[in-house]
Amino acid sequence: MEYTLKELMTICAAREIKNGDIVFCGTGISMLAAMAAKNINAPDSVIFFETGAIDSELAHIPLAVADSRIMYHTSANGGLMDAFCTMQNPFVGQRVVGILGAAQIDIYGNLNSTVIGEYDAPDVRFSGSGGACDVASFVSRSIIFMKMEKRKFKKKLDYLTSPGYLDGPDGRKNAGLPPGGPDKVITDMGVMGFDPDTKQMILLGCFPGITPEQILDHMEFEIRTDQATEVPVPTETELTLLREKCDPQRLIL
Amino acid sequence: MMTTQENKVMTLTEAINRYVTNGCHLSIGGFTLNRNPMAAVHEIIRQEKRDLHVYAHSNGQGVDELIGGGCVSRLEIAYGGTGKFMSTCIRFRKAVEEQTLMVEDYSNFQMTLRFLAGAMGVPYLPTRSSLGTDIIEKWGFSEEFRNEDPRIPNRKLVVADNPFDGWGDTEKVVLVPAINPDVTIIHVQTADARGNCRMEGLTFADVEQAKASRVLIITCEDLVAEGYLKTEPDRNQIPFIHATAVVKVPFGAYPTACYRYYDYDPVYMKAYARAAHDDAAYQDFLAEMVYPHKTHTDLLDHVGRHRLETILAGRNCGYAKNLDRR
Q1: Does residue A50 carry a catalytic annotation?
Q2: How far apart are CA B293 and CA B46, in angstroms?
Q3: Which of A72, B195, B249, B313 could be disulfide-bonded to B240 (CB atoms 3.0-4.6 Å)?
Q4: Is the pLDDT confidence value at B5 over 70?
Q5: Which residues of B touch A134 (CB under 8 A)?
Q6: Nearest to A51 among B89, B127, B202 (CB)
Q7: CA-to-CA distance for B85 and B33, rounded, in angstroms?
Q8: What CATH number did the domain enclosing A128 receive?
Q9: What does the pLDDT read at residue B222?
């Protein structure tokens, strides 16, 4: 069955979500990935938004995390304080999986969503952290969507907005952060993970027709590729559920 | 200005004219494209308020229009975007890149805690968020600038050792300084003349922002009779003791959404984003949508009944099910 790159990326992220996970999602493809997981492989996962809605029904696709569509048929409608406390909470916070995106990422999975250039006189200004820094600080694991480009996979970030492993295996502990960190990076060419010992990014999978060399050509830093396999293509069931249940109007796909 | 005076109802023109002064420290309620007090934002632009110091978590559309209207000089913010319609707020981005706006970055949790600290009357609150990041390292306002202005704390964020020696499995905390705005403006579904408020759907950080503020201006869809909100007090979030002014403004959050009343208007949001990229087009936008309208009702008349009908919310689901959002 034919599929688009966006569909493949969404399904790759959805496969990482398990029953019982509380999924923090942002807008766009991250929200769609959470919806896909709930409809395909993790019906008992919980969708959760930084604006304070938990277990939203999502009968229609929201276009922002404050969209009224996330407020319908929830377990509780609260506010920002509820949402961020949920993630800093020692009991439920460790069950939260964050889905994030950024303008730049480095080898330790640290993210920049603030500026390109100097902070005081930026060449490009982005939206800023929002809740991303909070999520990256608190939760046990996060899934990051990135587009493969040299200017995005950077040796050194222009601004460190959201913490990954900071500078290595002890980075988070030394800084005083709770344990956790990035788990997967889903790109438009393949999927990366992080070495359990060095906490450096490694290539886990290439999309069909893509070689590890092609991926490395789109990065400023080198990563290990010896564990890379081919990412399984989306199944007919996955694609049908994604298209018909999650985004029938194709607002994001 | 916590007054127990019974009737706080006034016009929007009067409320903005009286309480929003040039150079004042302002926060507005809502989040990205929902329940922004847009009628008040447009009135601030029309009254040509200048040099505002704005505190925002993710107050998207309203903050971008205040910046676009030339009202804002300094901004403390976590997120400048409205989701699909503007992944980064466009007038915000231009102003920062052209360095006509001083900006300082925080996270959404930090901004919420800062409002809560202000509402609680403590100088700061702790969190574990942002340790090891540039949100701590890089300041938008210099030490010198901070020392000159008594209304800004002398430091941005402070990392401290946990004084309870590792209690709570925590070695270090980030201390975030309190915010007490001069004025907070929120838009709610229902209020009464004394300023009791009932919000529906998510409250975002409106309650913390409202209670942290010296002056609280409330705009509302429905202004109800004295006593009505007291029949179901469990559904109310802000008691009147915090309120300064109450203004009835139907569609007062338009073009942003108001749960169970109306959706966001994709036509406005898209036209806005198109115009915002270009200075001349943006002036045309202001000349069409903001300046000529003496009141919000005039703007709604200009938009027209047909478009407003397309965004009317289903009372049960809370939004417009059949809205064309492509």
Answers
A1: yes
A2: 9
A3: B195
A4: no
A5: 107-110, 129-130
A6: B202
A7: 9
A8: 3.40.1080.10
A9: 98
User: Which domains can be identified in chain B, with CATH numbers?
Assistant: 12-122+179-248 (3.40.1080.10), 124-177 (3.30.30.40)
Q: Mapping DSSP to helix (H, G, I), strand (E, B) and coil, where does residue B114 land?
A: helix
Classify residue A126 as exposed, middle or buried by CB count within 10 Å of its CB (0-12, 13-18, 19+): buried
Name the phi and psi angles at A185, rounded to 5.
-120, 120
Residues of chain B contacting residue A163, judged by C-beta atoms under 8 Å apart:
130-133
Residues in Cβ contact with B200 at an 8 Å cutoff, skipping those fewer than 6 apart? B189, B259, B260, B318
ipTM entry:
0.97
Q: Would the CB atoms of B202 and A77 count as touching at under 8 Å?
A: yes
> How far is residue A86's CA from residue A92's CA, in Å, rounded to a whole number?
6
Question: How many domains is chain A partitioned into structurally?
Answer: 1
- Write down the catalytic residue from A16, A50, A213, A238: A50
CB A50 to CB B81 under 8 A?
no
Structural domain of residue A83, as residue ranges?
A: 5-246
Categorize the per-residue pLDDT at B1 as very low, low, confident or very high, splitting at 50, 70 and 90: low
Residue A159 has pLDDT above 60, yes or no: yes
Task: Please tell me the distance from the alpha carbon of residue B177 to that of residue B157, in angstroms, as a whole number.
Answer: 7
Q: Does residue A252 lie in a domain region?
A: no
Question: How many CB pairs (< 8 A) connect A and B?
Answer: 211
Residue with tokens 């231009």: B94
Residues in chain B, how many?
326
A253 in a structural domain: no
CA dist A224 and A194 (Å) reads: 10
**Through-space distance between the first and last CA atoms of chain B, rounded to whole angstroms:** 44
A44 is written with which tokens?
Answer: 């008992």
Mutate which: A49, A67, A167, vs B, most B CBs within 10 A? A67
Residues of chain B contacting residue A53, judged by C-beta atoms under 8 Å apart: 202
Cβ distance B325 to A66 less than 8 Å, yes or no, reads: no
Pull the structure tokens for residue A154: 């950077």
Mean pLDDT of A116-142: 97
For residue B152, which of B161, B163, B143 has the smallest C-alpha distance?
B143
Chain A CB contacts of B159 under 8 Å are 176
d(CA A41, nearest CA chain B) in Å: 26
State both tokens at B115: 């409002």
